[in-house]
Write a structure and sequence with these properties.
Shape: globular
Oligomer: single chain
Order of helices and strands: HEEEEEEEEEE
Strand order of the largest sheet: 1-2-3-4-5-6-7-10
Helix content: 10-25%
Distance between the termini: 59 Å
Largest sheet: 8 strands, antiparallel, barrel
Strand content: 35-45%
Number of helices: 1
Mean pLDDT: 86
Low-confidence stretches: 4-24
Structural class: alpha+beta
């Protein structure tokens, strides 16, 4: 009886390990195939600045994690992408954990035919939007188009 229980526990541990690895590979494959990897900015020639535009970088680490780095010039951070899916319209839906904010945010990105990127929505865990339908909620201004910088 004990031997069966030990085998069952070992099988569960292996299943959890393989499921976690497969999920990480799927996440990395999704962002890579969609075309997200690399650095993006409104103006790649400008120095990163909070008011004039950040440099946003998506990368896959050696351990398979997908990371999202933001460079605002005077401030920088690094955050883990915890999920990525592509919806029927081709929008990339990302969930990113921001340790400094103690929250996970969800945002949707559109890769345009010319290779540029545009944020379509950005919302908190509570469903509070900062960007909705491609416009900043606070001002109604459309989100800017970002270019690949590398």
């Amino acid at each position: 009886m004990m031997r069966r229980l030990n085998r069952w526990i070992a099988a569960v541990v292996l299943w959890v390990a393989f499921t976690s690895m497969a999920g990480a590979e799927t996440l990395a494959a999704t962002v890579e195939q969609w075309g997200l990897l690399g650095s993006w900015a409104v103006d790649c020639a400008a120095r990163p600045d909070r008011d004039k535009g950040a440099l946003l970088t998506y990368e896959i680490r050696k351990d398979g994690r997908v990371m999202y780095r933001r460079n605002f010039g005077e401030a920088k951070d690094e955050n883990e992408v915890v999920s990525a899916t592509v919806n029927a319209e081709g929008l990339l839906d990302l969930m990113v954990f921001f340790p400094s904010l103690h929250q996970t945010r969800e945002f949707g990105l559109l890769l345009r035919k010319d290779g540029s990127l545009r944020a379509i929505y950005n919302r908190s865990e509570r469903g509070e939007y900062t960007i909705k339908d491609g416009k900043y909620v606070a001002t109604g201004a459309p989100t800017p188009v970002q270019q690949r910088c590398d």
